[in-house]
Amino acid sequence: SKGIIVTGDNSLKSRPMDRIVDPLTVAGGQLEYLESVGRLPISVTGKSLRPIRHHSPIASAQVKSALIFASLVSRRPVTLSEPIQSRDHTERMLSGMGVNVTAKKNDDCWEIKIDNPPCSLDPFEIDIPGDFSSAAFFIGLAVLGGVQDGLAIENVGLNSTRTGLLNVLCRMGARIRIEETNGKHLGESRGFLEISASELSGTQVHAEEVPAMIDEFPILAVIASRATGVTSIRGAKELRLKESDRI
């Protein structure tokens, strides 16, 4: 079939593409770098793929989702693993659309499988909750005492693969009340947060906590600067490869 060229702005062109191109090439995909190896632009020619089996050395929802969608379009099985569970919005949504997605923790990795991709997806309705990453800045404002009488945030997404910041802040001494509401829609938790001004202490953020708060480190750094003691963060080098260098 006719090929296409995938490119982007300077930010996208600076991001590594080999983590997606390599496993697709192994599965039989026809992809070619047009300028710099490992970077956009890339020529992609439609081609039937073999079953995809890939271990990602990093926890990346983008890599995982790209390979899952490739398996669905080609109707080939996919088995993926990553060292720590990354955001799982794609798996939850696809499960709600009739795809049999299995995810489990093994001894040394997190594994996702789709053995029999369906011919079509079930139609669905979705009510999208408020974005936790956007709410994080208001959470920080309230924790640091910037809101008189505290702050309440309603209908915010509480997917556990996204809310690592709450765990860290509570460990630092933040007064945050968390209440899940309205059950789950397409497997996504949502709820209510009540945040009060708090006296905070420094903490250690470990590598296994990073994927669940990858977008929240800038606001965590601001909050940590107002806490008593030292806050240290380990295993966050992936932050340098986002849309902007978040470190």
UniProtKB/TrEMBL annotation:
UniProt GO MF annotations: 3-phosphoshikimate 1-carboxyvinyltransferase activity
SUPFAM superfamilies, per database record: EPT/RTPC-like
Keyword Transferase attributed: yes
Keywords assigned by UniProt, alphabetized: Transferase
Keyword Transferase among record annotations: yes
InterPro entries per the UniProt record, alphabetical: Enolpyruvate_Tfrase_dom (IPR001986), Enolpyruvate_Tfrase_sf (IPR036968), RNA3'P_cycl/enolpyr_Trfase_a/b (IPR013792)
Family annotation (Pfam families): EPSP_synthase
GO biological process, one term: chorismate biosynthetic process
Domain Enolpyruvate transferase residue range list: 4-247
This protein's name: Enolpyruvate transferase domain-containing protein
